[in-house]
TrEMBL record:
Example GO BP: amino acid transport
Family assignment from sequence similarity: Belongs to the ABC transporter superfamily.
Domain of life, per lineage: Bacteria
Protein name as it appears in the record: Methionine import ATP-binding protein MetN 2
GO molecular function, one term: ATP binding
Annotated ABC transporter domain residues: 4-243
InterPro entries noted in UniProt: AAA+_ATPase, ABC_transporter-like_ATP-bd, ABC_transporter-like_CS, ACT-like_dom_sf, MetN_ABC, MetN_ABC_transporter-like, NIL_domain, P-loop_NTPase
Originating species: Roseburia intestinalis L1-82
Gene name tied to this protein: metN2
Amino acid sequence: MAAIEVRHLYKRFEQKGVTVEALSDINLTVEQGDIYGIIGMSGAGKSTLVRCLNFLEKPTEGQVLIEGQELGALTEKELRGQRSDIAMIFQNFNLLMQKSVLDNVCFPMQIQGKKKKEARERARELLKTVGLSEKEKAYPAQLSGGQRQRVAIARALASDPKILLCDEATSALDPQTTASILSLLKEINEKLGITIVIITHQMSVIREICSHVAIIEHGVLVEDGLVEDIFSHPKSKAAKELILRDQPGNNNAPLANAVQERMQGDKKIRIVFSENSAFEPVIANMILQFKTPVNILRADTKNVGGVAKGEMILGLPEDRHLQVDIEEYLKEKGLAVEEVTEDVE
Ligand SMILES: Nc1ncnc2c1ncn2[C@@H]1O[C@H](COP(=O)(O)OP(=O)(O)OP(=O)(O)O)[C@@H](O)[C@H]1O
């Protein structure tokens, strides 16, 4: 049975007589044990979707099923019970600033009626899981962003959830801290078998740990599937743009613009390798065979679900026949080849 199933979900907001359709006919399935990413640009509807998954936001139409149970069919009391299976962490951690780390983790257990001693024992175990045993007496203000998110994760695990929803949980963190939090989430997924849903606007987060991804654009799910497949053969414009943005130096606007300018005009293709080391001989042999230079516009290696993938964007010579021959040559060598037509903002 699927952990989460979303069927024909719509969410509309009424604001001063104007209707905003934040989500439109969303269908998706998250299997047990998946790490499922939901990605989209700002305003795409990601937060609204994740809030619909635990009915913090009630869908206008459609169904959400958690382990086969339709949330819309539950009474408020039943819904509260079901919600304890779904924990959530946020970008701004939402910790209780007047309480110590240990008391923050104990808090949901005390609300559930657990005895103080038991709650403390469990909280200490959880703090060990997230690598913060030495900080139990500290207060959130004394912790770094990454440490605060670890406390939030320990607190989320205190209710023994089956599903963990992460809403931009690493967006406020630097790249190194992001990597350590993502690897903690992966460990939790593998060791505790918790299904994880990650909401993000960063493709790097998706390829780092997600098995599946859904891409949302203007409230519509435009593409979903295995991360590796979407990374290798993106179909939607939104997926292609998100992958292109996921480049080292993409925060550097002048550099991005310079690359963009160089990329205008030429025919551009994108090629993907599973073994990045294989790039060099293929490109070198191709240049020897066709006796023409190609413009390497971008080349880097990315870690997609633990597999090193080489990616390269080539600007081809103007000669149309040569373009066809080069593409054929690369395909014969077993490379995924596709034309790059979209602009990078
Ligand atoms: N309570 C609300 N009332 C009215 N409109 C809303 C409400 N919540 C969200 N919206 C609108 O729904 C759309 C989707 O918003 P949402 O916050 O889900 O997007 P998002 O993808 O999470 O964006 P971001 O990454 O910037 O947080 C936006 O147009 C937003 O203005």
